[in-house]
Amino acid sequence: MNSVNPTKQSQRKTKMTEDRFYVRYYVGHKGKFGHEFLEFEFRPDGRLRYANNSNYKNDTMIRKEVVVHPAILEEVKRIIQDSEILRENDAKWPQPDRVGRQELEILLDDEHISFNTGKIGSLMDVNNSPDPEGLRCFYYLVQDLKCLVFSLIALHFKIKPI
Amino acid sequence: MDIEIHAGEGGGDDFEMGEADAERSVEQMKDKATSKKGRGFVDSSRSTRPGVGPGDRLEDGEGFASARVQPAKSVEGWIIFINNLHEETSEENIMDAFQEYGVIKNLHLNQDRRTGFIKGYALVEYESFKEADEAVARMHGKDLLGSTIQVTWAFVKGNRRA
């Protein structure tokens, strides 16, 4: 990605955006086990909300909420800024379909994006799409965010996400 | 795309508010954004399904009050957040530096999915408050592999829940 010290640059930028920050990610589908989905959001006051509904085997919806330290919100901002997702556009991404849908909503200072697309099985899907660069950006950002959220939820609640 | 921009009314640094207010403040923040992008703004599917978003009740507490951030206990211990790690930091490096304050019950050192290097943060679990507290106090601002690391609590008490 950025070779010239992206960390420092984004830290400087986030100083001015302390208040207006919101992130939400959703992935899900409706199938023979009903509506199965995973969704999480980071709110400006530090609340991390997490919901995971899988009707397979047990039909309980897991909903968890915890307040994270401001340093973690800053890290989420840094990950988002370094990904440069705000420069992308979902206009040419595959539409959500019966297989599933993903949604990514980010509010960062004056910029607000609300992207959606279908499920991405592998990088092959990304490379064969009309906007591989944008979709690749989305693909990796989502993995990085999920990775952080799963660690936070797993460590705090001792449950295994998915 | 037709997006109506409303003039929001402040909010954002006032955390003494109820659930509905908290929801409204995020909506107001979104309204202030001057740049909006994505198919999500013209897609209404979100309003018809459950999730973590508006309308849900996930035991809404309050977020952190920036002036007094108090650590919150996780199910089996106390989690600290380490940031600004050098990209080549290994689990051994973290163990060496942090087991001095207590037995490390869990360590998450997540990777950047694109580069394979670490993302730059780590989460460490100690069994006792004392161990974690000492690690935060002694290691914050210290040098690890040439990088000045930031060490904080991972989870904090909500404003009203204390």
From TrEMBL, chain A:
<dbReference type="InterPro" id="IPR004023">
    <property type="entry name" value="Mago_nashi"/>
</dbReference>
<dbReference type="GO" id="GO:0051028">
    <property type="term" value="P:mRNA transport"/>
</dbReference>
<comment type="similarity">
    <text>Belongs to the mago nashi family.</text>
</comment>
<dbReference type="GO" id="GO:0035145">
    <property type="term" value="C:exon-exon junction complex"/>
</dbReference>
<keyword id="KW-0813">Transport</keyword>
<keyword id="KW-0539">Nucleus</keyword>
<keyword id="KW-0509">mRNA transport</keyword>
<dbReference type="GO" id="GO:0008380">
    <property type="term" value="P:RNA splicing"/>
</dbReference>
<dbReference type="InterPro" id="IPR036605">
    <property type="entry name" value="Mago_nashi_sf"/>
</dbReference>
<protein>
    <submittedName>
        <fullName>Protein mago nashi</fullName>
    </submittedName>
</protein>
<dbReference type="Pfam" id="PF02792">
    <property type="entry name" value="Mago_nashi"/>
</dbReference>
From TrEMBL, chain B:
<keyword id="KW-0539">Nucleus</keyword>
<feature type="domain" description="RRM">
    <location>
        <begin position="78"/>
        <end position="156"/>
    </location>
</feature>
<dbReference type="InterPro" id="IPR035979">
    <property type="entry name" value="RBD_domain_sf"/>
</dbReference>
<keyword id="KW-0694">RNA-binding</keyword>
<comment type="function">
    <text>Core component of the splicing-dependent multiprotein exon junction complex (EJC) deposited at splice junctions on mRNAs.</text>
</comment>
<feature type="region of interest" description="Disordered">
    <location>
        <begin position="1"/>
        <end position="63"/>
    </location>
</feature>
<comment type="subunit">
    <text>Heterodimer with MAGOH. Part of the mRNA splicing-dependent exon junction complex (EJC) complex; the core complex contains CASC3, EIF4A3, MAGOH and RBM8A.</text>
</comment>
<protein>
    <recommendedName>
        <fullName>RNA-binding protein 8A</fullName>
    </recommendedName>
</protein>
<keyword id="KW-0963">Cytoplasm</keyword>
<keyword id="KW-0507">mRNA processing</keyword>
<comment type="similarity">
    <text>Belongs to the RBM8A family.</text>
</comment>
<keyword id="KW-0508">mRNA splicing</keyword>
<dbReference type="Pfam" id="PF00076">
    <property type="entry name" value="RRM_1"/>
</dbReference>
<dbReference type="InterPro" id="IPR012677">
    <property type="entry name" value="Nucleotide-bd_a/b_plait_sf"/>
</dbReference>
<keyword id="KW-0509">mRNA transport</keyword>
<dbReference type="GO" id="GO:0008380">
    <property type="term" value="P:RNA splicing"/>
</dbReference>
<dbReference type="GO" id="GO:0006397">
    <property type="term" value="P:mRNA processing"/>
</dbReference>
<dbReference type="GO" id="GO:0005737">
    <property type="term" value="C:cytoplasm"/>
</dbReference>
<dbReference type="GO" id="GO:0003729">
    <property type="term" value="F:mRNA binding"/>
</dbReference>
<feature type="compositionally biased region" description="Acidic residues">
    <location>
        <begin position="11"/>
        <end position="20"/>
    </location>
</feature>
<dbReference type="InterPro" id="IPR000504">
    <property type="entry name" value="RRM_dom"/>
</dbReference>
<dbReference type="GO" id="GO:0051028">
    <property type="term" value="P:mRNA transport"/>
</dbReference>
